[in-house]
Design goal:
mainly alpha; two-stranded antiparallel ribbon; 2% strand
């Protein structure tokens, strides 16, 4: 029945929004054939407009959409609370938004584009593949229930940091001198060379005074020492530090961080914006990240630390009228750049835009000098080390040169406006490529084997850092653009960056410079993007691909399976990383089946056995910890 209007009544303009958005009373993107909101909600096929028939809509499907018809829902990995959720669906190329809202009870956590666990959304068939493997091997669900009890009885690390501690407790938990010597040296060689927090010379003077017992040790130093020990212990592969102790090295590390952080945050003697307090908070973040503790709070912690530093004026160069010594100015510069690097790395790992942009702070570059030249009357012209020669600040000074480019990439990848022209992407990529080429060759100038190892470690770590941004830059452009020659170029560049990251970690492990479980920055992102490239290369519509030639895919999958070995080592040490291991093992099975369908039965069995084996180990280990009333954290 046709509606009749009363005389004088204006006819209402029909709504432009799609029927689904109009009924849900939400803002519609008004794109055709399916609006972006319906695509994100996973109901793209139901999205219809008034006056448009179904065959009209189907006939106007864009090429970008037709290439990605299988918009896969998010696979439920292991636990509805600890794993990935099944509420959202990835969108086709051109409007792909790889973000995730994790729900834990009443708590909702957002994880943005560059969060490594979001990259599974690039695999349309993953959810159905996991469901098929679980149907064949129901023991996976049984093993999963052992790790994730129905009532989620596991406790988190955060519940422990509640009891204030005094100086006596700090002294009591410090290990023997022989153990401390080894861990302090590891920290100075592998962490203080990258994140500049301490004056090495001043720290070692206090360290020797502490063990000599000639003077009473300051509580600030005790807290710093515990955090230094915890960070250095993260690189030791032994299960126990001392034969007489029953606690594992990891559990001792947890206790050290717990005690130091409790003292720093609870005592009335700590001024939050003092240099010692800011340095202590830097060490807390570094120690937690090195030991995979409270990873989800790394970004919020770095942001809080940055605001404390800004409140103390660390983000601005000191004027001469402030009467701050050259020594203090140099320490402030080092601490500020360390805080900025921690924050941008935290933003990248959480999928957030950077807290600050280059215009938000102005401070001179830290001096390229050795710490033994630091003094109150610091003369920059006399103590500066030539750029080609390695110094105690070489890593920080070199990495700082690419900071504006890396901040721009982080903002592009994780910002709300994810569109960028190919020329802009190319410009950012060229800037990073130049930074890679400008990494000094310290190795050839190192005098002794220990210095040569340090030089190789620093240059390799710089390469990993820069390649991490390269592959995220190109991955973002690939997902925002339909298939084209430009996206093909970016796919090849992404593959090169990903393989470089894995090769760098392989070299560090083979040369005994970095243990497997300590490989972290960019590792999962590189592995998942290699799998994605192999997956795309073996699609029926792919015309030219390097990974389909000369058995290259097999070699690449072999490198990715080494990442599984790294994650296995990490899990056995920290009981953390199950979701990453499970996800990667399933994706490897999916990709192997895509490249060799005839081996699907073997691939499914291998993926299932890996998941069951790791879940069984975790169940046993966590049960023993709970029996001893020891702290555990989410897997």
């Amino acid at each position: 029945m046709k509606r009749t209007l009363k005389p004088g009544t204006k006819r209402r303009r029909p709504p432009l929004a799609c029927i689904q958005c109009y009924q849900r009373k939400v803002k519609c993107g008004k794109e055709f054939p399916s609006c972006s909101r319906c695509v994100r909600a996973g109901i793209a096929e139901e999205c219809t407009y008034r006056g448009v028939s179904t065959h009209q809509k189907d006939g106007m499907t864009s090429p970008a959409r037709s290439n990605y018809q299988e918009a896969a829902p998010v696979p439920r990995v292991l636990s509805s609370e600890s794993g990935l959720q099944a509420e959202s669906q990835p969108t086709p190329a051109g409007i792909h938004e790889m973000t995730h809202l994790r729900r834990r009870g009443g708590l909702v956590q957002f994880y943005g584009y560059s969060y490594h666990m979001n990259f599974y959304q690039q695999f349309p068939a993953l959810r159905s593949y996991i469901a098929g493997v679980k149907a064949q091997y129901p023991a996976i669900n049984v093993a999963r229930d052992g790790v994730f009890p129905p009532n989620h009885e596991s406790t988190t690390f955060g519940k422990h940091i509640s009891v204030p501690v005094g100086t006596t407790v700090l002294k009591a938990v410090i290990p023997s001198k022989s153990v401390s010597d080894a861990l302090v040296q590891t920290y100075l060689d592998r962490f203080e060379t990258t994140y500049r927090v301490l004056d090495r010379s001043a720290f070692m003077v206090e360290y020797h005074c502490h063990w000599s017992g000639s003077t009473s040790t300051a509580p600030f130093f005790l807290a710093q020492l515990l955090l230094v020990l915890a960070t250095g212990a993260s690189l030791h592969s032994e299960t126990y530090l001392e034969n007489e102790t029953k606690a594992s090295i990891y559990m001792q590390t947890v206790n050290w961080i717990d005690a130091a952080e409790s003292w720093l945050t609870s005592t009335n003697n700590v001024v939050p914006q003092s240099r010692e307090a800011i340095a202590g908070r830097c060490l807390v973040l570094i120690a937690k990240r090195a030991n995979y503790i409270q990873s989800s709070s790394f970004w919020t912690g770095s942001g809080e630390l940055m605001r404390l530093a800004m409140a103390a004026g660390y983000h601005r160069e000191i004027s001469p009228a402030a009467r701050i010594s050259s020594y203090d100015q140099e320490i402030r510069r080092r601490l500020w750049m360390t805080i900025v690097e921690l924050d941008v790395q935290a933003a990248l790992e959480r999928g957030m835009p950077p807290t600050l942009r280059p215009d938000d702070f102005y401070i001179a570059c830290p001096l390229h000098i050795n710490d033994d030249k630091l003094c109150e009357s610091l003369d920059c012209t006399e103590v500066a080390v030539p750029p080609g020669k390695m110094a105690d600040t070489s890593f920080q000074v070199t990495l700082l040169q690419s900071l504006p480019t890396r901040l721009a990439i982080c903002a592009y990848v994780n910002g709300c406006d994810g569109t960028m022209q190919f020329e802009q992407v190319q410009e950012l990529g060229e800037a990073l490529h130049t930074a890679l080429q400008n990494i000094p060759d310290w190795d050839s100038r190192a005098a002794d084997p220990r210095q040569q190892k340090l030089a190789m470690y620093l240059s390799t770590l710089l390469k990993i850092q820069l390649c991490q941004y390269l592959l995220l830059l190109y991955t973002r452009f690939i997902c925002q653009s339909p298939h084209s020659f430009h996206s093909t170029i970016c796919r090849r560049a992404r593959l090169d960056a990903s393989t470089t990251v894995l090769e760098c970690y392989r070299r560090l492990d083979d040369d005994g410079i970095l243990p497997k479980h300590a490989c972290q920055t960019g590792l999962m992102v590189a592995a998942l993007n290699i799998c994605h490239e192999i997956f795309l290369s073996h699609s029926p519509c792919e015309a030219i691909s390097m990974t389909t030639s000369l058995g290259v895919a097999g070699h690449l999958l072999g490198a990715v399976e080494q990442v599984l070995a790294i994650l296995e080592t990490r899990i056995s040490r920290t009981l953390h990383g199950l979701n990453e291991y499970y996800l990667l093992s399933m994706i490897i099975g999916l990709v192997k089946t895509r490249t060799s369908p005839e081996t699907s039965v073997i691939n499914d069995k291998q993926a299932a056995s890996r998941a069951i084996q790791v879940c069984t180990f975790l169940h046993t280990a966590r049960a023993s910890l709970l029996a001893c009333d020891s702290p555990i954290q989410p897997v």
